[in-house]
Amino acid sequence: MGLTRIPAESAELLAFDGVSFVVDAEREILHEVNLSVAPAAVTVLAGPSGAGKSTLLRLGNRLDIPSAGSVRFRGEDSAAIDPRELRRRVGMVFQKPVPFAGSVRANLKVGAPLAGDEELAGTLERVGLEASMLDRVADDLSGGESQRMCIARTLLTQPEVILMDEPTSALDHENRLGIEHLAKELAQEGIGILWVSHDLSQVRRIADHAVVLIDGRNASAAETAAFLDQGMSEDKS
């Protein structure tokens, strides 16, 4: 599969415009990063560990606030959007599943308190889980089941973008492929997916578009090509 960078003029749901992030008043984690998330596509944010990928994702729904630049959702500065509303429309799936205490049903109702069992069961089935799991204790789920439940919980807020921070890193190979397939299906339904990964084989499996970060900045065209070509070499070895 060919990987392309998203042109600035492409249709976008979420855009990072010249975003920088500084901590401790001196340590710059991100420097003037530009990135766009298109609808109905999986955009992978790739790069070596420590490049600032997870930090950029947190800026996407205001878990953190940029030190400079702006994050726009459907053209509007996210700073002008109520954070709770933004986080419903720009959902987040973390590296490790975060189940809450109680049943699967109780977990899903965090995303949609008024939803009935029919809607909850349909959402479970949408992510590849059986409706009968509604009464299961969330803490008893396997890693793959727990991650799917967390994705279902996010889907119940009806997001237009889902930010996925290395969501398969704690899973075995079979479950990793299952979550990748689910992300592609969600993109086909029109959701924009921004997926963080440093696994180059995974990048090549799932990315419709790839953006590479190195040392907290957008990689140059040559650096991007070299990084992705490294992934091709690893696949062949």
UniProtKB/TrEMBL annotation:
Sample GO molecular function, one term: ATP binding
Signal peptide location: none
Residues of the ABC transporter domain: 14-237
Gene3D superfamilies, sorted: P-loop containing nucleotide triphosphate hydrolases
GO cellular component: membrane
SMART domains registered for this protein in UniProt: AAA (SM00382)
Keywords: ATP-binding, Nucleotide-binding, Transport
GO process annotations (BP): phosphate ion transmembrane transport
Name of the protein described by the UniProt record: Unannotated protein
